[in-house]
Design a protein that fits this description.
Elements lengths: L1 H31 L26 H33 L6 H33 L15 H32 L2
Helix pairs in contact: 1-2, 2-3, 3-4
Length: about 180
């Protein structure tokens, strides 16, 4: 049990740092992006397009880009927050509780919905960054690839694990009440 508690504390803080870094990174990406190739590194994890379409963005485009990417970032942050809660429970020695399976279930749903939202966010972001381009250089892209499918499969597996854990917890609770 001590090994579980120690690694859970480590993972809890790793997820907490990630929870802070991802939204901060996203906001900085949109604020600092100046349209040059050198600054493209920042939003490239969300904008998967050819570099030639990019030009300096107006403040309105940056705000719209941030707004377009926000739902995906919020869902990712919510999923990470559930992992923080889960590993906090583990670090306190709570292994098979209703709270644990709820954390798994919420994280899985956030990940699953996030993969659907990602495609729409990507479309909106690309539309925003190319909306001031000349006619014929504006893009409207809808993306869904094997990485999205892989994440959906992972989310479904985690969701199934949460249901199994919850059923196991119920059986354990019934066994404890049986004389």
């Amino acid at each position: 049990m001590e090994k579980i508690k120690k690694i859970s504390i480590l993972l809890k803080y790793a997820f907490l740092v990630t929870l802070i870094i991802i939204p901060l990174f996203e906001v900085c990406a949109w604020v600092l992006f100046n349209g040059s190739y050198d600054s493209f590194f920042i939003p490239e994890f969300l904008v998967k397009s050819e570099l030639y379409i990019l030009s300096p963005l107006s403040d309105m485009q940056k705000a719209l880009g941030l707004a377009a990417s926000a739902p995906y970032i919020l869902l990712s942050s919510y999923s990470i927050w559930q992992m923080v809660k889960l590993f906090t429970l583990y670090s306190h020695g709570k292994i098979f509780t209703a709270e644990n399976s709820a954390c798994y279930r919420r994280a899985a749903w956030a990940l699953l919905i996030g993969e659907i939202v990602y495609s729409f966010s990507l479309t909106a972001v690309i539309l925003v960054v190319t909306m001031n381009n000349k006619v014929g250089e504006r893009l409207l892209v809808f993306g869904f690839d094997d990485a999205n499918i892989g994440n959906i499969v992972i989310a479904c597996v985690v969701l199934a694990i949460s249901w199994v854990m919850d059923e196991g917890r119920k059986l354990q609770d019934e066994a404890e009440l049986t004389i």
